[in-house]
Amino acid sequence: MDLAAAIRQALAELRVRKLRTLLTLLGMVFGVGAVVSMLSVGAGAEREALRLIETMGLSTIIAESKEQPDEKRRESRERSLGLTLRDLEAARDTLPFLARHAAVKEVAIYSLFSERGQSDARVVGVSPAYFALTHLAVRSGRLLAPYDDETYAQVAVLGPRAAYDLFGHEDPVGRAVKVNHLWFTVVGVLADRRLSREEFQGVRLSGAQNDIYTPVRTALKRFRFKPLEDELDQFQVEIAPGVAPRDAALSLSRLLETRHRGVDDFALVVPEALLEQHRRTQRIFNLVMASIAGISLLVGGIGIMNIMLANVLERTREIGIRRAVGARRRDIRDQFLVEALTITALGGLAGVAAGVSLAALISWASGWEVAWSPVSALLALAVCGLVGLASGIYPAIKAARLDPIEALAREAA
Fold this sequence. Notes:
This protein is of the alpha+beta class.
């Protein structure tokens, strides 16, 4: 019997027992659907994590000032000035593996407006290299330049939402905005970059949608800050190629501990370590989901074996007649194997469609990103095929070993 004829006969047999076939298919549908949706959601989470990490820079280290109660801060200031520009300069001059670096200081705002509107944007003083470190691009105008920082220039770069709130659809470049008591000239507007989350692994991310950036030295010189407040909220340093971020973080931590005289008033964030932590969590999630999918496939395999054994019992006379007219044991075995694999293939294809639909539903309901991959579908179908083959072998061998005379006699009885 050729393969095409065997498949047609298998489909005909399955159509005779529609309800039983449908119930058998469900186990494979659920198992394959779980695998496909799991891999799609997992790949989407991995891609989103990489995109979020890029906003911090995979090869960067971030030093952040710690929030402290006023009383504790007052005690800390007796030994440490907190995070300062001098810390950044000391790191730059002492640690040879540092490349670019940027300081960050947020300004407390009580008034922010232009001649066309007002805004609730966040105003942040940054070093010119900040934009390159966080992969922020300009849509119009220019970014902050080193001479802006060196000359304490009162210039600003606006995020897309801040630009719209302050100037509507007009081009803000060259116009003025008033931040608290100071007027700043707009020199650029950032390209739109929307992030799915405002933080990653507990670290705040800069989407820059509603941010206004000024030179950090201008911010420190022109604005007022609370007494005993850290000079910087954070600074970022980029690690030279070939240097392990963890080793670099250890060196930077020791330097800052020495400068701060052992006061615990700063924390280091290593984006590479955050990504690895996310991947470990994702692997645990994938393992749990794979176990669930495996159980579903196992149940589906048991169902296939059950229906094939029932088919052998119901079609004993047919087997006996076929053997009596010359069919070989191999022909009987192949026929039942093809039927088992046909059920598996139908369940697998339906499972792929269910998995794609489930992943899309999860994405719509939770806002998670999913990533479709033919590899995930092929992997699920391959596992499904192995389960179907393993489940169909025993019934097929049992059918092939039936003695034709005993089969006909049993049916006649």
